[in-house]
Amino acid sequence: MYPELDTPALLIDLDVVRANVAEMAEVAATHGVALRPHIKTHKMPELARLQLEAGATGVTCAKLGEAEIMADAGIEDVLLAYPVWGEPKLRRLAALRERAKVRVSLDSPDVAAGLGRLGLRTGAPVEVLVEVDTGQHRLGRPPGRPTADLVAEIAATPGIDVVGLLTLAGHAYHARTPGHLAEISRREGTDLVATAELCARDGIDLPVISVGSTPTARHVAGVAGVTEIRPGTYIFNDTAMIRLGVATEETAASRVLTTVVARPSPDRVVFDAGTKCLSSDGAGTPGWIRAAGLPWLRMDFLNEEHAVARLDPEHARYGELPVGTRVQLIPGHACSVTNLFDVAHGVEGGRVTTELRVAARGAVR
Ligand SMILES: Cc1ncc(COP(=O)(O)O)c(C=O)c1O
């Protein structure tokens, strides 16, 4: 399997990527909402371009560094879904705004004050989305009056233009059943729409209602009043998405190609990739790393450079998966894995056809 590559290596199946991109574009088009994919999953301008060509209106980034790399590649419409704080970053944001349309999300008057100074200094108000906590308890105040009051306070900041509300229902990753996932997703949308209505009654119109992750996007896109979805992981998918029922092994585009380097016992198989290739995200969750096409192999644990797996009793013999066998491991969290590789190898029609540089790898500032 792919003898031209040494292992471990990151493979991206571009046929699967294209199908995943088209499917989510179709979801957005069907519901009449904008699609603004989060690029933290792939960190590659080439793949952002693919998403834009399929109909995305712009991209979402977490960090300024990612946004700068996208702008370097000519991508001109960026939502920076992260509070931008401190003079060095505000200076970079000012420069970025000269070459791209940039909106920023935030959840505090403190961050608004800095952005407002930038807006006044440059004579162009900074457009912001106020983040709402719809249950993940990461950023934002609760929906309803607490957020409406925050919106009013931020809207009163000179140099700021509040254009919408944003949320990430990150707790959807822990949904217990498909029904539970659907319910979280629906609430993600209805909570924001109801809060925007409250703001409108306070005299502040918020045209942008930005929601949606890979698990929730297909449900929340249909909530009346939602205007934008921001899924990221969907382009690659991973075992977390398979567990939630929104992806399958066939739609998992990102794989770490590994080699069996040891068979210490009939049931134990050791691969040449550990947490430095696969990350620790999701570790311990049953099936958090899957060996493609080998359901009878169960990942036991990872060290930095070893993945230790077990064969089920029926396959537990030395002749099974001997040293030198190549296996594709499907990551537990595709986004973290991309960030661990300098390059990915694009696969088309089952053959390696291209090398992709992970341009925004490590862009954490
Ligand atoms: C603000 C924001 N929007 C969108 C997403 C995309 O979520 P997912 O990768 O589950 O599609 C994320 C994920 O971290 C996020 O933090």
UniProtKB/TrEMBL annotation:
The keyword Lyase is annotated on this UniProt entry: yes
The protein's name: Alanine racemase
Classification of source organism: Bacteria, Bacillati, Actinomycetota, Actinomycetes, Streptosporangiales
Family: Belongs to the DSD1 family.
MF annotations from Gene Ontology: alanine racemase activity
A Pfam family annotated for this UniProt entry: D-ser_dehydrat
Signal peptide residue numbers: none
Superkingdom of origin: Bacteria
Key words, A-Z: Isomerase, Lyase
Domain D-serine dehydratase-like: 253-348
EC number: 5.1.1.1
